[in-house]
Write a structure and sequence with these properties.
- It is a single chain.
- The protein has 4 helices and 8 strands, in the order E-H-E-E-E-H-E-E-E-H-H-E.
- By secondary structure, it is α+β, with helices and mostly antiparallel strands.
- The chain has a single domain, classed as Alpha-Beta Plaits, CATH 3.30.70.
- Strands 1, 2, 3, 4, 5 and 8 form a 6-stranded antiparallel beta sheet that branches.
- The two termini are 22 Å apart.
Length: 160
């Protein structure tokens, strides 16, 4: 099953955290098919905090959505993520964006990610790794959604 994963960090060694998370995901049995560039992006939600580095992975997995989410949360914990407040600063943030065309609507797992289509910091890097993936509820491809969100405040930094 193909999965889209968003990575973000705005505290500490931001780039190091993204790269470590990517390696840890790989070591947990999830094959990384493609990795986007890393973009520096303004904070979303709570503006008074450091800017983020964001990237996306396209992965292949045999895991269920719940199993993959659990692995991503384990990576966050191992990298020292501290829960502060909604949309606050994060050492590492891993979001499961989609798994093929599955839809899930549970208390702590919603697929596709319910806000991905509104966020340039997700869509711009995701467009590099999965431009043709079609949102099963909106019936629009990532490339179509990426064209409809402002992305001028994203700065490409480096490869992941």
């Amino acid at each position: 099953m193909l999965a889209g994963i968003a990575l973000g960090s705005n505290i500490g060694d931001r780039l190091g955290s993204l790269r470590q998370a990517s390696q840890m995901i790989k070591c947990m049995g999830t094959a990384i098919i493609a990795a986007s560039d890393v973009f520096e992006t303004p904070p979303w939600g709570v503006r008074d905090q450091p800017w983020f580095l964001n990237a996306c992975l396209l992965a292949e997995t045999l895991d269920s959505p719940r199993e993959l989410l659990s692995k991503l949360q384990e990576v966050e914990n191992r990298l020292g993520r501290v829960s502060r407040f909604r949309w606050g600063p994060r050492e590492i943030d891993l979001d499961l964006l989609f798994m093929d065309g599955l839809t899930v609507d549970e208390k702590d797992l919603v697929l596709p990610h319910p806000e991905m289509h509104n966020r340039s910091f997700v869509l711009v890097p995701l467009n590099q790794v999965a431009p043709g993936w079609v949102h099963p509820l909106l019936h629009r491809s990532v490339s179509e959604m990426a064209r409809q969100v402002p992305g001028e405040d994203l700065l490409r930094i480096t490869a992941l």
